[in-house]
Amino acid sequence: MARKRELSSETRQSILVVRNEGYSMREIAKKLKISNNGVYYSLQRTAQTGSNQSRKRSGRPRCTTKQEDKYRVSSLRNRRLTGLQLASSLNSTRKTPVSTSTVKRRLRDSGLQGRVAKKKPYLRLANKRKRLKWAKEHRHWTEEDWKKVLWTDESKFEVFGSQRRTFVRRRTNEKMLEECLTPSVKHGGGNVMVWGCFGAGKVGDLYRVKGILNKEGYHSILQRHAIPSGQRLIGANFVLQQDNDPKHTSKLCKNYLQQKQAAGILLVMEWPAQ
């Protein structure tokens, strides 16, 4: 038997208004196109409670006790436990099993949401100390101080397509439609590596790296692109930021930057690992 639809508060108010005008229950039911029982119980509820709102329902009783709901403590002890594992652990001590969805619902009520874990580089203790030292040394830098930094790095871009997943919206039988496909080529289609920089809210040179970038190639980039961009965007004694890639820290490049630093052209920012 289908569940009967509950009368709205507006309909109940209309029943009360029409009743006060002297209409019978049968006439009200015919006028408002509802059942006779609906009219009767609506008027009875209004007489008993003085309101046309629904009574507060007790709801379905909880299948777990407050003591059992503390299994969220297990989730905090081991953040990687799944809802299925927590439900299995709880059901091992119960006569009546609870579902995995119930466990997940209790965890959400406690503010514990299931999420994909963020990825973060694994750091040794020495690297953590270096990062903390760097942060303390720069904690009082002003906006003007940061505007003196020329930020540099190399990046690789896929020429054809991408290794990331592509989401489309399709019907059941549209799997092989052209507009629902991601084209691919053999061997990935190749990639392009570029070196770029920016500073003081402006972008500097963008240089396409041909082949493998070695220390000699990076030394050339410093001479022809990095230092000219820093002087053009920021001015004399700008701060050069670069990571600890082996070609960046090679003797050839390190000695060259030390010479420029001694000449007052730039300052090399000490950059912590990772």
From TrEMBL:
InterPro entries: Homeodomain-like_sf, RNaseH_sf, Transposase_5, Transposase_Tc1-like, WH-like_DNA-bd_sf. This is Transposase Tc1-like domain-containing protein. SUPFAM superfamilies: Homeodomain-like. GO terms for biological process: DNA integration; DNA transposition. Residues 77-140 form the Transposase Tc1-like domain. Pfam families: HTH_Tnp_Tc3_2 (PF01498). Residues 46-68 are annotated as: Disordered. It comes from the Eukaryota. It comes from Astyanax mexicanus (Blind cave fish). GO terms for molecular function: DNA binding. The lineage of its organism: Eukaryota, Metazoa, Chordata, Craniata, Vertebrata.
